[in-house]
């Protein structure tokens, strides 16, 4: 199982970024996927969830209306579109999937929101 995130970077407040997570080594279309983030000195927190076929999506409260999770099962990729970014969104963002009670993580991609 491999998850590889990309798309992070430095963006000004109010800006946008789209993160991608490419999966390999398992049947991607059979499993739900999540985005988490971890800011310095804080615990990792759930950002968004998408079911295996993409029909169900959930977001953490502060991300609702600003972030959109989506997936392309042909490309084996999950996306996180982030709009209206705030300095408090600064964190390392991780892709996650869960199989047989085991969690699998990517290496993370850094998002920094600063002027």
What does this structure look like?
By secondary structure, the protein is mainly β. Helices cover 0% and strands 53% of the residues. It is built from no helices and eleven strands. It has strands spanning 2-6, 9-11, 17-24, 33-38, 45-50, 57-59, 67-72, 77-82, 91-99, 102-105, 109-113. Strands 2, 4, 5, 6, 9, 10 and 11 form a seven-stranded mixed beta sheet that branches. A four-stranded antiparallel beta sheet has the order 1-3-8-7, with no helix packed on it. The protein is globular and about 40 Å long. The mean pLDDT is 96.
Briefly say what this structure is.
The chain is 0% helix and 53% strand.
Percent range for β-strand residues: over 45%
What are the secondary-structure elements, in order, as H or E? Answer: EEEEEEEEEEE
Category from helices, strands and their pairing: mainly beta
Count every helix, treating DSSP H or I runs of 4 or more residues as helices.
0
Please tell me what the overall shape is: globular
The low-confidence parts are none
Report mean pLDDT, rounded to a whole number: 96
Largest sheet descriptor: 7 strands, mixed
Count of beta strands: 11
What is the CA-based Rg, rounded?
A: 13 Å
How helix-rich are the residues, as a percent range?
under 10%
Terminal CA distance? 37 Å
Keywords:
7-stranded mixed β-sheet, 4-stranded antiparallel β-sheet, globular, 115 residues, 53% strand
